[in-house]
Amino acid sequence: MRISPAILVCLAIVASAAVQTEKLRNEKVAAFDCTLRPGETQPLSGTQPSVTVYFQDASLEIVAQGGKPQKVAVKPGDAVFRPAQAGVVKNAGSSDVHFARVDFLGSGGSETWGTTGLSPNYKLLFENPYTRVYDIRIPAGTKEPQHTHKNRVVVCLSGAQLRHLMPDGREVPSTLQTGEIAWRLGATHIGQNLGATDLWVIAIEPK
Asked: What is the pTM of this model?
């Protein structure tokens, strides 16, 4: 049986697609754990803006619809916002690329949050009408000042054994594993790292 060229092209696209697992979904976001092997591609959504957080160094080739290929180098902890523009991202390196992608399902908002409520040791990476994104690091055996989060996706680059000290005196365990992608409700607390490993998390708060 002869296979048409169009079918062969479709088979090639399917064979080169990324491995993607949905980790969570609600009215605000859908979050995915993704792996691109060398030479594999993943389509960029033309309908939903997103933030991608990378777990390791990678060399990528990104082609926006109607545009030219662009080479991009990323490193662990890089958080990249992409507007709702169709296109393709390709792993142009020689190793697997592991990343988290958070798609924004809402229409965004006009409010600017800045660093309001955040602990002074957090690093604000960027903010736009869809999200506020910041870097959280708590060294092993330390705790941070009391602060307030909004509802958020957390992407864990370095896991740790944690405990949250709440204003009413409660102590709530909140351990994160390296590579974990999770939804956390907004709260006021003190984060305490009880373990022997430093915590490193990228927090993505949808608007």
From this structure: 0.90
